[in-house]
Amino acid sequence: MNQRRLPLISGEWIDRSQPIEFTFEGTRFTGYVGDTIASALWASGQQILGRSFKYHRPRGILSLANHDVNTLMQSGQKLNIRADVTPLEDGMTLSAINTFGGVMGDRASAIEFFSPFLPVGFYYKAFNSKRLFPFWERLIRNMTGLGQVDFSTPHIRTAKRYDFCDLLVIGAGISGLSAALSAADLGADVVIVDESARAGGSGHYQLGNDPLQLEKTNELLSAVENHPRIRLYTQTQAAGYYADRWIPLLDRDRFTKMRAKTVIAATGAYEQPAVFRNNDLPGVILSSAAQRLIYRYAVKPMNRAVVLVANADGYRAVIDLITNGVTVVAVVDLRESSLKSDVAQTLEQQGISIFLGYCVYEARANPGRDGVSAAVICPIDVNGNPQTGFRQTIACDGIVVSVGWAPAANLLYQAGTKMRFNKRLQQFVPEVLPSGVFACGRVNGVFEFEQKLIDGHRAGLEAAAHLGFDSQIEVTISPELESPSHPWAIVEHPAGKNFVDFDEDLQYKDFLNAAQEGFDNIELLKRYTTVGMGASQGKHSNMSALRILARITGKTPGEVGTTTSRPFFHPVPLSHLAGRGFTPEQRTPLHSRHVKLNAKFMLAGMWQRPEYYAQSGKSREECICLEAQAVRHQVGIIDVGTLGKFEIRGADAAEFLERVYAGRYSKMKIGTTRYALMLDETGVTIDDGMIARLGAEHFYFTTTTSGATAIYRELSRLNTLWRLDCGIVNLTGARSAINLAGQYSRDVLSKLTDLDLSSVAFSYLAVRETHIQNIPVMLMRVGFVGEWGYEIHVAADSAPALWDLLLEAGFEYDICPFGVEAQRLLRLEKGHLIIGQDTDGLTTPIEAGLEWAVKMDKSFFIGQRSLQILAKRPIKQILIGFMLDPNFQGTPPQECHLIIHGNEIAGRVTSVAFSPILNRHIGLAYVKPELAAIADLISIRLSDGTIVSATITPTPFYDPETSRQQEDVTQLQEVTV
Amino acid sequence: MKLMTCPINGSRPISEFFYGGELRSMPDPNMVTDEVWADYVFHRNNAPGIKCEWWCHIPSNSWFIAERNTLTDEIIHTYLWGEVV
Amino acid sequence: MIRRISPNHDRLQSLNGTWRDINGMPSLVSIPGDDRIVANLGIADLSFLTRFGVKGAGAVAWLESQKLEVPDRANTWKPLPDGGIIARLGLTEFLIEDSLHSSFALRLAEACQSVPAKVYPVLRQDAAIVLCGKAIQDLLRQTCSVNFQALSLAEHPVILTLMVGVSVTIIPILPDRYRIWCDGTFGAYLWETLLTIAQELGGGVVGVDRLI
């Protein structure tokens, strides 16, 4: 084991005093604290770390930068473990995903032989058959998938939090650290984040064995760590850019919503692979990955390397390899000439062949197919085409690739940055940045070490200036001496398997085919080939795809353009996104009373309301029925505290109400109440309630529970707009309301108050303010459920005491608490409609039978003008009451069942219930006016198609003469229909 | 998350606000034809551009006007109704 | 005296604390262990304090006529003589809360029986909470998007915002003492939510005797 572990490397991330035991695919391995899974496995000589998505080809380390999707693993219940960056932990039992029979002998790799039959666009073409799709689906589900879900995995929620800073620097590499220091020194409060376990970025590993660079990096890092105004968060991802510099920061434990006043993207660049046959073999590795292996984890990447280069970074990598014991047998430079001629000379003197103007044509696998055995190289012509006649084979066990970079500009794009393709640098760079957003370092096209320091400094100064700190910005950046990226590191091969996208197993010819089929625009190309749609989201493949499309279509990369960058930058666990889940809930002050009475609660909007009160041995329907009967026969009590309750005062109070409601209120006598109907501008009914006049300039009014918040908000807006002399106070939460209803309600109340409750002194629909045992209350005689009753409004903190008094006083009358369902039944027996149930978004007062509540001759009210127009037109439907046969057996209709007449829809049911007091099913429905004559029959169609016949009946069904509101009601009269 | 500046309470995330539609003046109902009234009630101008809109800061129930570029979502200015700009 | 019940009454009932009636409202005055919690992160229910609200264009003049010193800027507060608070909510609305030693609320409610034009009394039935301790910012960071640490407490700011989805009024009295008011019907939800988070942060319920 650990045959590739190097002797102590200065600054290494591993702690050799803390070994860790773990298993991979059933085999035991050892690593160290500080290792990632991939580095520990590679150190032990394990090269196959996973299998590719489509062809199940063996794959190893590519980037070690969180782009190595092919090395996704699973450990027990934990899914989506990214082996290249996930720290090794004790006891991990890892397995590769996406294999049949393990990573070493994946049977599904046989698919490769079928690859000619699995061209690009395969998914669209092959699985389109409706008949065959179920077969394909089963097959695909078995073969694909990136892990096995254990359904007993606990649901984890991690708390989110907010955070704030003056400047957020994303990326703690050279330029980022420099920027943070410059801004903090001028007084800014800075947060700097980096997704890696430690800060420093490439300053710690793209060394070219230069000790000065390492020293400078550590100096910067130390300054940042000790600066009082800088907070450094490592292992933290900036997952996206949202409006006004709102950036989600993700670390292992939580999701932080950071609001930054300015943002600097120092996010660097993704190293790009070269495209050649078998470039996906374990052992073909990006140069920065090789350098990370060496300097972070003290792992020798290979023994004998061929290094493919096209930039200065490549030569630095060669030196790093040689310094740490790797034999470099050849350097293959795609360019005809390079500036590193002195370095090249030194290398040649050491016996390393330099091949200028050459490419790697093909990587050869070793017999075990778990690594490289040789590189086949050949010269390339001016267009980058391989001259295979002159090829050579060089034995090696690894190919290191350093051909170019793509900027990690995702968050800049999301912020709305306009990018421009720089031909010299061969990369997109920011051209127009949004206000408050800055970029530095490689994402800004600056690659040289010293220049990155200066560029970071400049960005820090600009951010500080934007924040209002005094800063002189006079900084010049020297242009790059050589291009860091090659325009065409792609080599065609007749036998293919030269991969462009490793996540999706896309080869070079797949792009040619797609373009040929007409998908020759970057958006179409992406969706047809699926390039960039894998788990690394195109970080290593989008640029190559873009270059290929440019070449095919004869455009420049700038003209081809990029597809839209969207959050999240790296995957975000659902546990972090879920957070705690705040779901506000409202409770009336009487909630604990309902709990004690065994209420079954239901959610009405945000309110918890008793649906009914459970009694042992009785079903829900029985309980509701008993509650309703109690109200009809003796007395019931219900908490209606969820109603909207408002007070309006002022000289223009009446005028205001006249404008927003359809009825007339200005002439109401003090001490009376009136039904109030509210319409919108189109004449549609939107709410109803009661208006009570308490004084000449003082009204109190109620709305429905669900309408309260929106109505108060809109009335406030109208009050702002109209500037009438009045003020509206929202008492919905401040007051509780209780309905006491039934023939004994007056008896109960009279035990508690001195107020004269006779019908002469306190008539139907009157309002009185009084005291119940020194609790100030407002009483309204209401008729919603059709019995003598009072709606009692009281301050919330006194409601429990009042409830207790009422229950105590009502005990001798068998007072019965009743809930929402019983109330709905009782009101239906009276034919009272509920806005939103018996009306919808198009119902006008005419259709709902509420014309009596509309006074068209007022000077103005909302909806008036529209009603004038509607009055000229025939109405399409009208609300009627219906009853089923007295001896009806079978399934009764439900709300929304349709009324059918001659094979056409002629209406629908809005409310229906069985009335215990009438012993029949009753309901309300809309029907066409010509079918609405009393005693006519209507046909209601149930869900299964059965037709139920009903008779149109006048409403109210119960007590049509409203005798229950008159004096001398002592006994329930025989009710005939 | 987008920020909106309430003229009274200051800069807050947009989740603290309620959008109340474009600022439009109601024509005199007594003076307009049915067609003009129907146009006012049902039609809205959806063309992108700088619009004056009603917005409400929910926790304080403060209504105000925001001048907003509906194409770029840039909020240019917020002010209380009736204030001279 | 009328028996008043706090919106948080049920939540507190289940704790093993000592109770006392304050202003007619049963109130949790102490609970075992709260002396240790109070320095770290304590949450207590102050719904028993008497309160009065008023708004309108004439409110400033009327309050001054009642001999109160009114905060001159929107969203600021002033202490009242004898320890209460008068807060200006926005431009023309006011919340007056008494301490245990003052009775402005009662006096103003009586004076409100006949108010001049453009003065509108607002019945206040808040769930009132106090947070105390050094971990307050941790709790606020999990529940509210306002940057409280950027506020200058010397300016006596009043913040009207959303906290865990509920409209609240927040006054930072001191860096380790914050007052929060919300509509009483949301009181149980707010209390329960804040308490759960406070407990995770090593805090909990404290009795009012610890604070007053």
From TrEMBL, chain A:
SUPFAM superfamilies in the cross-refs: Aminomethyltransferase beta-barrel domain (SSF101790), FAD/NAD(P)-binding domain (SSF51905), Folate-binding domain (SSF103025)
Keywords per UniProt: Oxidoreductase
Domain SoxA A3 positions: 496-579
Keyword Glycoprotein: no
Protein source organism: Phormidesmis priestleyi ULC007
The FAD/NAD(P)-binding domain, residue ranges: 166-444
Designated name of the protein: FAD-dependent oxidoreductase
Lyase recorded as keyword: no
Domain Aminomethyltransferase C-terminal: 879-959
GO MF annotation, one: oxidoreductase activity
Family (UniProt): Belongs to the GcvT family.
Organism superkingdom: Bacteria
Annotated stretches, region: Disordered: 958-977
Bias (Polar residues): 968-977
Residue ranges of domain GCVT N-terminal in the record: 590-858
Automatic annotation (TrEMBL), chain B:
InterPro entries the UniProt entry points to: SoxD, SoxD_sf
GO molecular function, one term: sarcosine oxidase activity
Domain of life: Bacteria
Record GO biological process: tetrahydrofolate metabolic process
Parts forming coiled coils: none
A matching Pfam family: SoxD
Gene3D superfamilies per record: Folate-binding superfamily
Name listed for the protein in its UniProt record: Sarcosine oxidase subunit delta
Organism expressing this protein natively: Phormidesmis priestleyi ULC007
UniProtKB/TrEMBL annotation, chain C:
Entry-linked InterPro entries: TrmE/GcvT-like
Domain of life: Bacteria
Protein name stated in the entry: Methylglutamate dehydrogenase
Source organism: Phormidesmis priestleyi ULC007
